[in-house]
Design a protein that fits this description.
Blueprint lengths: L1 E7 L5 H10 L3 E4 L6 H9 L7 E5 L11 H10 L5 E6 L2 H11 L11 H18 L2 E4 L5 H12 L9 E8 L10 E4 L20 H8 L2 H23 L4 E8 L5 H15 L3 E6 L4 H6 L5
Parallel strand pairs: 1-3, 1-4, 2-3, 4-5, 6-8, 6-9, 7-8
Helix pairs in contact: 1-6, 2-3, 4-5, 8-9
């Protein structure tokens, strides 16, 4: 049986998560009074219980009672009542934007600014984040991407490494992505833009991939980049980083950067990381110059 406690920051996706878990066959209870959680867990763990997968939503709406949840978790461990704790998080900037877009008031903001409510909530839920079995940072996740991650953990029961990686290609002439954690420049590689039959293709096309990767420098760079990721990612995780944006840039963000970003994405997926790929500028030249968009 699986008993999952879903918590985290308001606006990070808890309600959406509970709906997705319910669709996946979980019996879901939102905002269960704190004093009932241990009792509910005992009932769920009783032999013969028909409830095999349960998700309980707990958040700042519990008010002062939330501080007693830590005692409940200790008691559940003492009674060997197995549970998993999922903590949903997002950056302050993203949370503020989401609240403004929905025109909702933060439960702790009262008549103050949203930022103040978020700061206070982080303080009050810090013990939950420290105790979390899984931490999902939804700052850059689309709804469908959140579902993929939840399915991995709670449906397919795959190992989850508590870090979500975005591999992003871009063009330097359009600016470095502001949310980048790591930026790599591949403009040292030969540029297929100057070859007529390749100019209008992108790094998603096989001829471009073959052109870029036929050079020893490209393969050597990829090998070193993957080795660097193998070293950095576990160390980022040790320091509590749950989201990583790796940006790879060339001049226009259409050929070389796309090719290497795809290759890194595939390598990280093979290692079992939760990773997505984005090509920010892949069609910008076409829109600006009137080139045909494939």
């Amino acid at each position: 049986m699986r008993f999952v406690i879903v918590s985290g920051m308001s606006g990070a996706g808890k309600s959406t998560t509970l709906k997705m878990l319910e669709d996946a066959g979980y019996f879901c209870v939102d905002n269960l009074p704190i004093q009932f959680i241990t009792t509910f867990a005992r009932t769920a763990h009783e032999e013969g219980s028909e409830l095999k997968r349960i998700a309980v939503g707990v958040d700042i709406r519990s008010g002062k009672d939330l501080e007693y949840l830590e005692d409940n978790l200790v008691q559940m461990r003492r009674e060997q009542l197995d549970y998993e704790l999922l903590y949903l998080d997002a950056s302050d900037e993203v949370l503020v934007r989401r609240y403004k877009e929905t025109r909702r008031r933060h439960p702790l903001a009262m008549d103050s600014r949203i930022e103040n409510g978020i700061l206070l909530e982080r303080e009050k839920t810090a013990f939950l984040k420290r105790a979390a079995t899984y931490i999902l940072d939804t700052s850059t996740m689309l709804t469908r991407e959140l579902k993929v991650e939840l399915d991995k953990i709670f449906v397919e029961e795959q190992q989850y490494r508590n870090i979500y990686i975005t591999v992003l290609s871009f063009g330097f002439k359009y600016g470095i992505p502001t949310d980048s954690d790591l930026v790599f420049d591949v403009r040292f590689l030969p540029n297929p833009y100057y070859i007529a039959e390749l100019k209008y293709l992108t790094g998603n096309d096989e001829p471009i991939r073959e052109f870029v990767m036929k050079y020893e420098e490209a393969n050597h760079f990829l090998t070193k980049l993957v080795e660097l990721m193998d070293f950095l990612i576990p160390n980022y995780q040790k320091e509590g980083k749950y989201q990583l944006v790796v940006s790879i840039g060339c001049t226009g963000g259409k050929h070389r950067s796309v090719t290497l970003a795809n290759a890194l994405y595939n390598a990280l997926r093979e290692r079992g990381y939760s990773v997505k790929i984005e090509h920010r500028d892949i069609e910008k030249d076409a829109r600006i110059k009137g080139e045909p968009i494939k």
